Amino acid sequence: MPSQIELLVQLQQVDQTLRAKTQAVESGQGRVADLDESYRAKAAATDQARTAALALGTRQRDLEGRLASAEERMKDRRMRITRIRNDKELGLAKREVDLLKEEIVGLETELQQVYEQNEAATGGLAALEGELKALAQAREAEAVALKDTIARLGAAIERDRARRAGLIETVDAELRRRYEMILSRRGGLAVVQVRDGTCQGCRMRVPPQLFNQIQRNEQVILCPSCQRMLHWQPAQDEASE
Ligand SMILES: [Zn+2]
User: Is the CB of residue 32 less than 8 Å from the CB of residue 94?
Assistant: First the structure.
């Protein structure tokens, strides 16, 4: 019949392996969630870039249309000028041609800018689409790995839980409460060994009288310094010497 402290040692072993397995599952879930979030943000940025590129494309076509029309009018005015015999009319027509020239230069300048902007926007969009695709693939790979982890650990976690439920029944209720409390306060380590008269939780020396009590293994003794439950394993102490 194992003593209470021995049962607590077993309980802690189960808790530790259970926690490691649960953390493996949780960290996988965390990575998938992170990649989900990155994907959503990247998809939104890609949509935005696509809208901007489309707007630039529309603007480019509009400017090209206006430029073609201005050039058409220019051709028409120049042809007309050759037929004008009246000085006043000729002056007006030349003025019109000058204005059209200005308009054409302005449109060409603007169009050149839009071409450059469009090229940059299209390149940016392609890069974003590439990144989006890479994120989708990374997320997919992580999801597959997570599924694998869950499949691998799921049954083991169930077994650990069943073992824990069985063990906890054998531990005194007050000790169980105390164990849970120390476990949460002391970073998942409630039961520690005393080796060479030293608490392995906080490395402080255990007073000799207390050490004698611990070796008797009759009751659960707390470390005076870190308040963890102290455990002594004779076999291991002998083996290590
Ligand atoms: Zn201690």
Answer: no
Coil vs helix vs strand at 189: coil
CA dist., res. 69 & res. 34, Å (int): 53
Ligand 1 centre to CA of 218 (Å) is 19
CB 179 within 8 A of CB 171: yes
Measured in whole angstroms, how far is the alpha carbon of residue 166 from the centre of its chain? Answer: 37
DSSP 161-207: HHHHHHHHHHS-HHHHHHHHHHHHHTTT--EEEEETTEETTT-PBPP
Report the predicted TM-score, pTM, of the whole model to 2 decimal places.
0.69
- Using the predicted structure, report yes or no on whether residue 154 has a pLDDT greater than 50: yes
pLDDT at position 166: 95
Rounded to the nearest angstrom, the distance between the alpha carbon of 194 and the centre of ligand 1 is 9
| CA 239 / ligand 1 centre spacing (Å) | 22
Distance 19 CA to ligand 1 centre (A): 22
